[in-house]
Design goal:
This protein has 231 residues and is mainly alpha-helical. It is built from nine helices and three strands; from the N terminus they run αβααββαααααα. The longest helix is centred in the N-terminal third of the chain and has 29 residues, at 14-42.
Length: 231
């Protein structure tokens, strides 16, 4: 018995292919704009209360208005940008109460991540953290505020990744994102001349396997400066 030939799938219309390609391109552009803006905000490259426009964002990243609008909506949902009823886009200018709230979140989340990372904090990790801390010192020496914030967060993220607690880390990074512009203001206020002292205490606690000392050093590091900003 001869098998019937299998039907050849109908080729999709060129218009449908073009529409799918355009949608993919828009999605990639949106993700690129989102990630770049997110990094700029988190690393304090934008001051608190800075104004942005969709047209300016689109021009800056050489994209159409649609990916720019979607990136802004996504960042607004994360609390990294604020949208007024009139459509004005700004970075957060945090009140004292909001700074205290976010500092409290950092005090809850980050010592827990550090404690969970401690059993997996091998010497290679500690060496990498010390190298990052040297980079922090270089940023201080050349008065690079955004570079300082970026490497300071990298120091913490490198440690927290060892916790293997992605949900807690995601919440923590959302807090960092909301604080980014404020961290820029904090860096200007502190006028640092050396890396944070608490980084050395964190490294010492990791080497000693001292969980209470590690929790205290992390909690102090992530809240002490922020609470100085409260007027």
């Amino acid at each position: 018995m001869t098998a019937e030939p299998r039907p050849i799938p109908a080729e999709r219309p060129p218009v449908e292919k073009a529409a799918e390609k355009a949608a993919d391109s828009t999605a990639r552009a949106h993700d690129r704009v989102y990630r770049a803006l997110r990094a700029r905000i988190m690393h304090g490259e934008m001051a608190p209360g800075a104004s942005l426009t969709l047209r300016g964002i689109a021009k800056s990243f050489d994209v159409s208005m649609t990916p720019a609008r979607e990136a802004v909506r996504r960042l607004a949902a994360e609390g990294a940008l604020q949208l007024s009823l009139s459509g004005r886009i700004t970075t957060p200018a945090l009140s004292n109460d909001r700074i205290e709230e976010l500092a409290t979140l950092r005090a809850l989340l980050e010592p827990e991540l550090a404690a969970r990372a401690l059993p997996r904090a091998h010497f290679a990790l500690i060496d990498r953290l010390e190298a990052i801390n040297q980079g922090v010192a270089q940023m201080v020496a050349c008065h690079d505020g955004p570079g300082y914030i970026r490497l300071n967060l990298e120091f913490h993220r490198m440690l927290y990744l060892r916790a293997q607690s992605p949900a807690i880390l995601q919440l923590t990074e959302t807090v960092w994102l909301q604080l980014g512009p404020t961290m820029r203001a904090l860096y200007g206020r502190l006028q640092r001349t050396e890396p944070p002292r608490n980084h050395r205490l964190i490294l010492a606690a990791l080497k000693a396997g001292d969980e209470p000392g590690l929790r205290l050093a992390v909690r102090t590091d992530v809240t002490q400066g922020l609470r100085m900003l409260k007027g």
